[in-house]
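Second opinion, please. Please look over this fold, written as tokens:

===
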Amino acid sequence: MYKHLLVPIDGTPLTTPVVEQAVEFARDAAARITFFHAQADYGATGDGSLLQAMAPAAFADAAAGNARAWLARAAAAAAAAQVACETLIVVSDRPHEAIVEAASGQGCDLVFMASHGRRGWRGRLAGSVTARVIERSALPVLVCSVESQADRGDEQRALRAIRDEHRSLAAVLRAVQQALHDSPGRTPSDAQLMRAALFYIQAYPERLHHPKEEQTLFRWLRQRAPDSVAVIEGLEAEHRSGTQAFAELRQALGAYEAGEARGRETFEQALQTFTESQWRHMATEEKLLLPLASRHLLPQDWADVASAFESHADPRFDIEAEQSFDRVFTRLMNLAAAAAPR
């Protein structure tokens, strides 16, 4: 049985289903995963060269792009399933070669990937990165079957969007935990990262994630399945109590930044308590609430939920804020990578 998968991801709509299938495969096989992305060489472009000379910090962000955000969500999905994983980015304009080299260099025994296209099996592979990997790889390549975004039903689209938002929150929490681990001193080595992460952790659920859940998913499930009310009310209570828990976390960070006695220890305890409560909350939603929704919601209910979680033109929610939070998340993952010890 395979024990180490290389899973290339590219940030397209196929990324989420590929990650889900790879994590499930690895969990069943007791295998680990290396999530991989081949990044184009931005510095080799005219714009990139100019930006590198004029604004190195801005160049670093532009060159990093969204890759770390994609990989962070994938790693969070693996962690939720208790699958060991690591992530790897290389700069290459020939992704098929980079994938083959990474699989060999990381000691993988299987490449797990998808292919784009809707023209049947042969048409889907012809000329694709996947086909080139199959041609060049000495390792077996498992090409998983995934549906395009347009081909998926509203229920699957909604469920994947909800899980993606959970993975984003989980990735930011993991970044704070890692930043704390990398700061053995009396004050944080990267206070900017921690403050930005705490802003995201507080603001994103309150302004977007929780309202979308409560106004669509919870509302429809209350109507269709009265026996789910106790679970829903418990989750809503956790939404409200999270405000106080976060206030305590922010206060603890202030003491840690000020170098107060036991400041680091107090923040570490507050972070652990807050993080565990968030894990439990998301686990309740994914293991109890979402299966209830799958059993009871009607197609038109799922269409409404999918619209809320995916649409960039839903008047009920602050879409400009959502796009802004996407940028904040990407920036956070790049900050976290820059702060990590070399």
